[in-house]
Amino acid sequence: MSSGHHLNTPTSIPQGRLFSFGAIADVQYADFDNRQNFQKTKWRYYRNSINLLSEAILFWNKRDQRVSFVLQLGDIVDGVNRRTKASQSALNETVAVLDKLSAPCYHTVGNHDLYNFTRTELAHSKLFSLTPDKVLQQDTNCSQIEMNGADQWWETNRFYYSFEPAPGYKFIALDSYDISMLGHGGHHNADFIKAEKFLQSNRPQGNDELNSAEGMHGIERRFVKYNGGVGKKQLQWLHQELQSAAENGQRVVVFGHVPLFPSSADDHTICWNYADVLGVMHQFDCIVMYLCGHDHPGGFSTDSHGIHHYTFPAVVEALSDSNAFGTFDVYSDRMELEGMGDVPSKVVHFLKKD
Predict the structure, then answer these.
(1) Of 62, 106, 225, 335, which residue is least crowded by CB atoms under 10 Å?
(2) What is the rounded CA–CA span in Å between residue 204 and residue 285?
(3) What is the largest CA-CA distance in the chain?
């Protein structure tokens, strides 16, 4: 990679480092000509995004402090693939690149993924290739799901899970589109109808374009079709996961596709019921950070409970001589982010527990 990929690298030496992990968001690959975003403010470089993904993987594979795993924060392929009937070939190309990673990669679902595939199709895709046995080893509460056969876990189409990469740490993946009009395969699906009613009930009359926030102001602009929400069952599961982590003295990193904290992203990209999710998270003091994508410029903010919210910039909008990914080095009192390209480097300190 060229030197232009580097920003401010943390200066502390890796002595005392517990483990490292990578993060990347919104690759949105497509074999499609460059074009501007909906707002006509940024260009999207669809074909080049897979090259930047390859460079990120090469960096992680060669890094002196090797990563234990990578978080892929959603939207691995772009919705334009659906219109060009290239969804499967685009996914195959990105998975072939991801397969070169020498560490595990944990995925979350984004809206563009659901433009291309139904939830069932994604659950059985090469992207979500964790077997039930492997997930069971990582997810302490997965045993609560009835498993009558080897494929029963995937039959639930559940994209939230947890894993423990190192002693004293738990990572929790949220499904930001648990409540959504996307990925249900048709207008007659009960989950689609329920999400559509919820969305329309929170929007002003007269604006029938559900992907438009026209006529809406502030945080109410989040009620658009390309966002989603977290259901009651998932919220209950999240509470159980966090309670278990708190009882075991673990630090927790939560990740998903859609931002949860309004100060960390533009209002029109925030989770529909973000207050419900934060309401659960704020009951516990074990959460270090929430990582996500979705809002392409990216952002960072710390909420009143000391949780750091980091929205990763989009790979698809990074220039060819840049990139947009990061590597976290985890220490006992902090995380040091080595940012590349559009991702700024940062040191985030853990709150001292009472």
Answers:
(1) 62
(2) 37
(3) 59
User: Which residues fall within 8 angstroms of residue 65, CB to CB, at 6 or more apart?
Assistant: 14, 17, 20, 329
Residue 285's alpha-carbon distances to 170, 171, 233, 253, 306, in angstroms, are 13, 15, 22, 12, 8
Place of tokens 């707002």: 39
Rounded to 5 degrees, φ, ψ at 192 are -60, -50
47 φ/ψ angles, rounded to the nearest 5 degrees: -70, -35
Distance CA 71, CA 110 (A): 13
* Average pLDDT per 10 consecutive residues for the chain, totaling 354 residues: 37 73 98 90 96 98 94 97 97 96 93 96 81 42 31 62 93 96 88 94 90 94 97 96 97 98 97 98 97 97 96 96 97 96 95 67
Q: What is the pLDDT of residue 38?
A: 79
Per-residue b/e over 303-313, b at no fewer than 16 CB within 10 Å? beeebbbbbbb
Give 114's contacts (C-beta < 8 A, 6+ positions apart): 122, 177, 180, 182, 183
What is the token pair recorded at 329?
């080095």
Cα 125 from chain centroid (whole Å): 17
Residue 207's pLDDT is 85
Q: Kindly provide the b/e burial profile for residues 189-201, where b requires at least 16 CB atoms within 10 angstroms of the residue's own CB.
A: bebbeebbebbee
Distance CA 224, CA 36 (A): 20
